[in-house]
From TrEMBL:
The keyword Flavoprotein applies. Its cofactor is FMN. This is 12-oxophytodienoate reductase 1. Keywords: Flavoprotein, FMN, NADP. The keyword S-adenosyl-L-methionine does not apply. InterPro entries: Aldolase_TIM, OxRdtase_FMN_N, Oye-like. It comes from Sesamum latifolium. GO terms for molecular function: FMN binding; oxidoreductase activity. Residues 2-145 form the NADH:flavin oxidoreductase/NADH oxidase N-terminal domain. PANTHER family: 12-OXOPHYTODIENOATE REDUCTASE-LIKE PROTEIN, NADH OXIDOREDUCTASE-RELATED.
């Protein structure tokens, strides 16, 4: 799930209030889906955590939750084939474990007006890059608090 209220893949300051309002002492909050890389995106205006500026943007959000006694968990996310060329670097196909496209009629704001793009099936030697993207994102999530 995502709120689609982040721009340039950075959690916005209004998220501090949003998450703080939903925090209770001992409560467990799971963040909205946060992309692990620029190839992980699948929806408009979603936050990420692969860059340092993204990690820094999450810090005050996590701090606000902790100050109210809550526990915060960052949901690391890769959209896989549930994406579109318009969300991918250089208009490349989304990456996935399969080359089979998704065929459903849904409008989630793709700039080209199309649905989900046919994905690029990762080759074995490409998988380690996605694993490393999760590693970096997890490290940033820990550093964010």
């Amino acid at each position: 799930m995502t709120r689609s209220r982040s721009y340039d893949f950075v959690a916005q300051t209004h998220a501090i209030m949003y998450y703080s309002q939903r925090t209770t002492k001992g409560g467990f909050l799971i963040s909205e889906a946060s992309g692990i890389s620029d190839t992980a995106q699948g929806y408009p205006h979603t936050p990420g955590i692969w860059r340092k500026d993204q990690m820094e943007a999450w810090k005050p959000i996590v701090k606000a939750v902790h100050e109210k006694g809550g526990v915060f968990f960052c949901q690391l996310w890769h959209a896989g084939r549930v994406s579109n060329y318009s969300f991918q670097p250089n208009g490349n196909p989304p990456v996935s474990c399969t080359d089979k496209p998704i065929h459903i009629d849904v409008d989630i704001g793709f700039s080209d007006g199309e649905g989900f793009s046919p994905p690029h099936r990762l080759r074995v030697e490409e998988i380690s890059k996605v694993v490393d993207d999760f590693r970096v994102a997890a490290k940033h999530a820990i550093e964010a608090g």
